[in-house]
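In practice, a research group might receive sequence data for several interacting partners and want a quick structural hypothesis before committing to experiments. The following worked case mirrors that situation: the sequences arrive first, and a predicted assembly follows.
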Amino acid sequence: NIQSIKEILCLSGPDLQRLTKLSSSDVRYLHKTVAAVVKNDPVVTALQMYNEECPFPTQNRKLSMGCPVLDLLLGGGIPLMGITEIVGESSAGKTQICMQLCLSVQFPRSYGGQEAGAVYICTEDTFPNKRLQQLIALQTMLRADVPADIVNDIKFGNNIFIEHVADVESLNCCISKRLPILLSRGLIRLVVIDSVAALFRCEFGASDSIAKAKCLQKFGAMLHHLSHRFSSPIICVNQITDAINDSYLAQSDFGLSGKVLPALGLTWSNQLLMRLMVSRTQFCVEGAFPGDESALSSGIVQRRMEIIFAPHLPQSFCNYMICTEGVRGMQKTGI
Amino acid sequence: MVYTCIPLLHCLELGISKEEALEVLQIVRREASGEESQRSVGLPSVRKYTALELLEQEHAQGSIITFCSALDEILGGGVPIGKIVEICGAPGVGKTQLSIQLVVDTQIPECFGGLDGESVYIDTEGSFIVDRVMDVAHAAVQHCHLIAEAGQDEVQLEAAQAFSVSSILSRIYYFRCHDYVELLAQSHLLADFLAEHPKVRIVVIDSIAFPFRHNLEDLSLRTRLLNGLAQQLIGMANDHGVAVVLTNQMTTRFGPVQSTLVPALGESWGHAATIRLILRWEGKLR
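A structural hypothesis for the assembly, expressed as tokens:
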């Protein structure tokens, strides 16, 4: 009455012996044969992974941010497999960065894209469509590294699928039903959820932390699975909460010395591959960029992108600005 | 090698009577004297050791340095062969970094204080990024070259020549397990792999927590599976002379007054590892 390979592997040697009356060496053989069916990939070394000779997809390539300075900070861009979180106060630029990624994913691979579109899941405000159109119109200006005819050939608007989701139930539905279809058809290679925190904070009260943690875990697992299966990054936007005194403990979880904490807690953080924090600084940049005179009498607010954690990057940061054509990192000038 | 000791309590656990337990002991003792015939059948041979012999054997096994003197000191010289070390910590504290450092450090040639071994990395989260491994490997190579240049020792200079980033990468065997079923399967195949690759000196599983924390509602099943896995790993650590390093996540334990952070996977799992390292942040330092 053993029904599946999974059951065989979940039973210990002695248990199997009792159930099947096989000898211990036969049981060992059974375990190994079944295991070989589950794990039939050939052995791979790190060198083969580096040379891209690996038969299964690995975490080599990245999705470009559309800006060389930001790409440098991130070691090439956003890793293709895993959940990357962008957390920060409001007006820090999270939505701007996400929109820029929805455009850069559509570029050819040789220019850091994935030659596919994106899904943008909105949970709070309506999607800023006018701003998107403005960004699309100015892509040649932002991406001076790409020949203009290639840029103009891409029908950016057609490849961004916008979903509005108002509660956790609809979000789960979207992720479990709609995303797999778009991903398996190769129509999208990026998912943006803006924002995760909004939904979970509304639906779960202070006393529901266990239920909330379970829900977040399930949700994270689904996203993780999709991301790895289709080599598509998932960007989750998160908000910050104020750190109050007895959350010293929680602060010490993240190595943050400021007065703010990402919302959603440890359960969620355990699911993330990388966490980026964005914030406004108190500095402004005088209109230094040509073509940007419109915005500039008071100077553009300088913003900061900080790597809070990533498996492959040290903690570091980079300043950036939000220009008409998009998000541009600012190179560190010698001090 | 099986160290035999069947106390009375244990046979109560197994559900066999004392008479049956004595019978088993007698069979084992008989097998111990007939070792040669057992080997050809493939059964594990049995030897009795004194405690002193065991201690000497432990010291002779060697350990893998981490390049962080504070850590090496706590560990008594480094990550020890033949034991399980569990590294726990919050996200971003450096568990994957330490794991990658260890699979590189295992390969340091003996003349520089390393084990000249190969490494196995089992990735369950997808956080093994080759670029980073290259950086760590590069630093290790530089380090050895510097020592060799300073000392001008023949053996060291030769070893430093052969120790390169690509040689390091080519001796890290990478396995990707997407869920706990794959991880269980991998552990069954690992013993044979280690037998075929006798130069492997470290097995890292990063992380052991991830696959066991979602899609696994039945906690007693989880405990059973983890215990089984721990036993297999300890067996492999001993039989093949490898160090086993596991990374674990942290979870919140709700207390009456305040909550604390504890390693994930439950109380009984806490006994699986020989050494448990908990990495924490102190302000902005780790």
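Before designing any experiment, note the following. The radius of gyration of chain B is 21 Å. The CA atoms of residues 129 and 142 of chain B lie 21 Å apart.
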